[in-house]
Amino acid sequence: MSKSNIFLDAPNVGNIEKKYLCRAIDNGYISTFGDYVPKFEKKFASYLGIKKAVSTQSGTSALHISLYTLGIGKGDEIIVPTLTFIATVNPIKYVGATPVFVDVDIDTWNVLPSEIEKKITKRTKAILPVHLYGNPCDMSAINKIAKEYNIKVIEDATESLGAIYNGKYTGTLGDLGCFSFNGNKIITTGGGGMVVGKDYKILERIKFLVNQAREDTNNYYHPEIGFNYRMTNIEAALGLAQLERLDEFLEKKIKFNTIYKEELRNIKGIKFQETLPKARSSCWLTCILIEKDLDISTLQRKLAKKGIPTRRVFMPVVEFPPYRDCRCDKYKNSYVIYSKGLCLPSSTLNSFKDIVYVCKNLRELLK
Description:
By secondary structure, this protein is of the alpha/beta class. The chain folds into two domains: 15-244, 3-Layer(aba) Sandwich (Aspartate Aminotransferase, domain 2); 246-366, Alpha-Beta Complex (Aspartate Aminotransferase, domain 1), CATH 3.90.1150. The chain is built from twelve helices and 14 strands. The strands form three sheets. It has a seven-stranded mixed sheet, with helices on both faces. The chain has a four-stranded antiparallel sheet with strand order 10-12-14-13. The protein has a three-stranded antiparallel sheet with strand order 7-6-11, with no helix packed on it. Helix 1 (15-27) runs antiparallel to helix 8, helix 2 (36-48) runs parallel beside helix 8 and helix 9 (246-264) runs parallel beside helix 12. The chain starts with 14 loop residues before the first helix and ends with a helix. The mean pLDDT is 95.
């Protein structure tokens, strides 16, 4: 007998979100004007314990504008993990730079600092680490390398809002940090993103550029080429409501992760994505590595018949046609994780009983 209404990564919205959205509509400001955008930016910055945050149209645009503002362009190289969503890498191409791929750690699934250092050249301008599925990278090692070679660090924190490394939130550990509020993220604005960073002047310039490089006058004067990367007021209204529930969402996702580990601990051949000792994952998605000799797609179909949605781990980016010419290594760990990895239901719409049900069926299929 299958169970319905189990969700992989669906958004959790309710009455508080409706209240904020109705206020935005009643005020008449549903586009890029209105007071919810600055309020959301201020509250987001306050949560992270930083001075300023700049909202954007998406996580992808947050990454693009970060690279662009740092002056990265043609002839430059950016070091990036092979195992990530393609949206991490595409902005590197947008600015005309070259992605240089490195393998990930087999335990944390995050970029290997030792591999980063091997790939640094005179053309390397930045490292773009990804806190994959909400799990913090080894930022101490990455920042040490960046400092030694005088290169920038742009964190892809799009999946890791609320994750902590060495007492600080991910996204605040590099020169710039980028977040996503897509519908499946920990909190959502329907779309949208955010850029944070250490240099206030750089963030002010990003704020200027995302608004079509418009000077703060009534004359619509644009001294240079900018971008229409602004968040809308109605998106920010939704974001404010979701931000009020962030701790609730994080607590539930972390509890889901604990249940999965407890319920599946006796199954031989299952490994969970490991977290560094000085880190706390946001557990955006709980993922497992199944070392048994089985076809992941077949397992997915069997789980789907039980009403359990799953998703494959990201395919290594070098498998996609635009990036096949960027291959310069075997990326062994990335391919192992992709071939054996599975993302489990982690939406906060699920109940704890739902997660136990998923575990019960996994045990039966993997025994």
